[in-house]
Amino acid sequence: MISVQRGVAHPWMCDVLGHMTTRFHVGMFDDAAYHLLHAVFGWAGASDEEGKIAWVDVRHLVEYRAEVRAGNLLEIHACLRRIGTKSITVFYEMTNVSNHETAATMEVIYVLFDMQQRKGIELAADLREKALLHLIEPKDS
After folding, report:
1. CA–CA distances in Å: residue 116 to residues 28, 54, 121, 136, 139
2. Which residues are within 8 A (CB) of 9 and not within 5 positions of it... i.e. 6 or more apart?
3. What is the pLDDT, as a whole number, of residue 43?
4. What is the DSSP letter of 27?
5. Any idea which fold 2-132 has?
6. pLDDT tens digit sequence for 70-100
7. Residues 80/60, Cβ–Cβ less than 8 Å
8. Which helix (H) or strand (E) holds 128?
9. Contacts of 1 (CB under 8 A, 6+ apart)
């Protein structure tokens, strides 16, 4: 797995119960996605200035495993779990740096998307080769 994000849970990210809210968990994972797509494919949001090709989220599965409180330092690692014809499945793990607990995980399916035709497109051979370098088979939970 590769490190794709570091952050801190600020007090304004927490709800009335004192823990970081869903919107900020997902926001951190979303920011991590940009770092992952750059690390794997060299892609960034500004990579395609003509707006023709992008990665779009089509599925999220989030598991909250431990409470995150204000001041906690967080790090997100990620790996590819599956490479499809038009999609990749990515697994993210958010860890509380201070106690090494897994705070949350998220599995996401991204589709390579033609922004002009508004549909998924096949991964080219060079993208598939880059993705294979980061493929890690899931362990039994």
Report:
1. 28, 10, 11, 32, 38
2. 20, 24, 68, 69, 70, 71, 72, 74
3. 85
4. H
5. Thiol Ester Dehydrase; Chain A (3.10.129)
6. 999 999 999 999 999 999 999 999 999 989 9
7. no
8. helix 125-132
9. 77, 78, 79, 93, 136
